[in-house]
Amino acid sequence: QVQLVESGGGSVQPGGSLRLSCAASGSIFSINVMGWYRQAPGKQRELVAEITKDGITNYADSVKGRFTISRDNAKNTVYLQMNSLKPDDTAVYYCKAPGVTVRLPTTFERYDYWGQGTQVTVSS
């Protein structure tokens, strides 16, 4: 019904930058919140940043001032600009769209969707 496709991961030295993108496609009626989570080896998945369709943002304390989340509602796409990257930022980054309203043949339903994940490695 709905797919989230991420891109932009890779390897970078400490202090470098990367930009992640996540595009949602399918039978979408509306998406309120889009966000980024990450999971490092041996750790639980954690929220990095999220943004509503009205542009209200929320960040994890560990990334405030370094990461910026934004979105293009017309394209159902969310971005994560990551600056001043640290080795502790190394993780698989996942896009999430909770509570997506999906257009079905005779009704609307709400589902949560995750992307497949993209690796971000920060190392010298």
Describe the structure.
By secondary structure, this protein is mainly β. Helices cover about 0% and strands about 60% of the residues. It is built from no helices and 12 strands. It has strands at about 1-5, 10, 20-25, 30, 35-40, 45-50, 55-60, 65-70, 75-80, 90-105, 110-115, 120. The strands form 2 sheets. Strands 2, 4, 5, 6, 7, 10, 11 and 12 form an 8-stranded mixed β-sheet that branches. A 4-stranded antiparallel β-sheet has the order 1-3-9-8, with no helix packed on it. The chain starts with a strand and ends with a strand. The model has no long low-confidence stretch (mean pLDDT about 95).
* Percentage of residues in DSSP E strands: over 45%
Strand-and-helix sequence, N→C?
A: EEEEEEEEEEEE
Quaternary state of this entry equals: single chain
Number of helices in the DSSP assignment: 0
Shape: elongated
Using DSSP, what is the number of strands? 12
The span between the termini is 41 Å
Low-confidence stretches: none
SSE topology sketch:
Blueprint: E1 2-7, E2 10-12, E3 18-26, E4 28-30, E5 33-39, E6 46-52, E7 57-59, E8 67-72, E9 77-82, E10 91-103, E11 108-114, E12 118-122
Parallel strand pairs: 2-12
Antiparallel strand pairs: 1-3, 3-9, 4-10, 5-6, 5-10, 6-7, 8-9, 10-11, 10-12
Question: What does this entry show, briefly?
Answer:
The chain is mainly beta and 124 residues long. 0% of the residues lie in helices and 60% in strands. The termini are far apart.
Keywords:
mainly beta
